[in-house]
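From the pipeline queue, job 12 of 40. The input is one protein chain; the requested action is below.

Action: predict structure.
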Amino acid sequence: MFYSSRWNAIKFKTISYFIMKNFYLFIAAIFLVGACNPKEENAGNHPALKLTATMGAFTSQDAALAIRWPDAATIGLFEFDTRSNIFTNSNRPMLLGQGKGLSDAQFEGQAQSSDGWLDDEKIFYAYYPYNQTQTMASAVTFAVPTKQTMSAGDSLAHLVDGLFMTSTSTIAAGHASEAALTLAPATTALFFEIINQTTTPLPIDTVKMAVSGAYLYKSGTYNFRQNAYNFTTTDQTSNITLKFDQIATLAVGEKIRCAITLFPLEIPQGGSLDLEIYTNNRIALASKVAELAPMVFDAGKLYTASVVIDSAAFNAAIALPERQNSFIIAPRNDGEDALFTIPVSRVNEFWRTADLSKVIGNDDNWVVEIIWQDFDLAGNDVLTITPGKERGKGPLSRFGLTLKKYPADQWGNAVVGVRKADNDGNPTSDYLWSWHVWVSDFDATTTTNIVTYPTSGKIGMNRNLGAKNATKGNVGALGLMYQFGRKDPFPGAVSTNVGTTAKAATTNSTSWTTVDPDIGGTFAYTNQHPTTFVTAITDASTCLNTTVAKEINRGSWYQQPSGDNACLWAWNQTTVKSINDPCPKGWKVPDNTNAEGNAANAANQTWFGFTNANWTYDPTNRGRIFNNDWWPMAGWLDPFTGEPMEVGTAIYMVSTRSGTPNGTTVVNAMSFGLYGDASTTVTPRYGNIRQAAGASVRCVRFTPDD
């Protein structure tokens, strides 16, 4: 297994945790030479400033950072009085002086003017590197790259190249002839020593550090008058990736060092620090470096840890990404249990604008449970909640899932939900959010599991969302069904037989219910009741649409006007993935711009170009073949009962688009429909089904980060 050292004095079960030695925190100071009389005015005296930069604050047990100043290195300097009155051209450079080798350097300059002394004092603020565009003397903006590149032969070079340093000092007028400021690092650094104790060479090219319980920041503003950083939510990130400039292959017993720079950070109780190590783009280690808290990483300090990789390290938990509603996971190649963690932060993304009483606060307990699963193996233990990871506190923590080491054909689905809980872990609320876990051999990193659509060039999956396989004629290829705009799936048919003989599938752990739209027709309700099918609105006198004249919400499950589709699946938004989108990271529900695939909109019309010539009808297996990929006739779910319809005779793939109304009486969802019978003909159509109906989804490639 892997081992880690200790952060300061925090306890850990295996080996002492992150040790920091020889740390010296340099405080900005002034050294006055000669007599100083603060009551005596000497306005003609321009203090000569010596700014000394030293890296003594960045030291560890066996490594110290050395400054590598570029030839044109300059320190930025602000000069102002105690009332924050900034002098003209105050932001100016001070050139590099003689210096003292690689570890220390001096910058020399002179105070700008004899004016502006207030109460016999001036305040100087220095920073490195110099930024001529800064205009405010109260704060300076710095940035930390979230994708850092490191030389395999020099693990510390990129830290000093991107080092940020600051200093503040108050200088009296008097007879001060010389004053010195000591620059201190404004960032912190984590230094990892990775040791290969497997039985084979270990090639490493990427290391990713992630935190839960707190956010990392890409940029921030350092306010030197308050000695504090200010960050905004738009600058938040959960991980930093470090890429080696070349693959580093570690022999058995060999080690390599890597360093990551970041802003000061505090991880609260319940949070963790995770490290993922990639070998030739394959995860070799994804392990929890620390899960005890609080952990504090201060500015000007270098924290060190040792991570040992042996055979057991390949089975550490993988942290699944934030801001997603579904995840693709698969058994490990070595047949061991696979461990995953999922963040609960998605809960507050929805409820903070819908109902603050359902937000998970920092002191709120929560508990997770598997709502349903449809694995073929009896016993309901293919996917389980990881022992000890079923409960947590606060919105930034994670729960754990264990995928058992069953044979590779145990594919299927599960929906996992979170509720608020008391101190003993007993639920005290309805579900706040739920996630779809898709256990599949679908590999989005290869070209063998995808299909390129004609004309539009869009990239799609080669199977329905939630399908257990992509095999012709197999019931597992049918996949799951989705009501328009909802993130939670429903099971489809239990067989591929034609018509009424195909009954609704049941899971091995729950039953399905229906509810009238006057009760369940809101996202607040559906997000708390993921196993409830909301039936269609039938009263043509209600829900008058204020966006599209004379269109009404009949046929939808959603109580709001049907023109308000931005809060459904964000229709006609190729660069937006809605909070309700059911596709996993890197994929989304396809977009379509008009009902019949007008040529003028072909670039935005995912399915434009589908014609009879594209498809081969397979009456035996009840489906269609397109570019060697199988499209089963999964049918659709009746909008009034939730039961499968037209199984074996129809394909309906729903998109984000709200379809044109049927007359002006029914609200539909834009879909791609394929019909057929025992003949060899096929009728592709950009048809419409009622928004309350359930239909298949084939996700398309989505490149933005979320």
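Job complete. The chain is about 5% helix and 35% strand.
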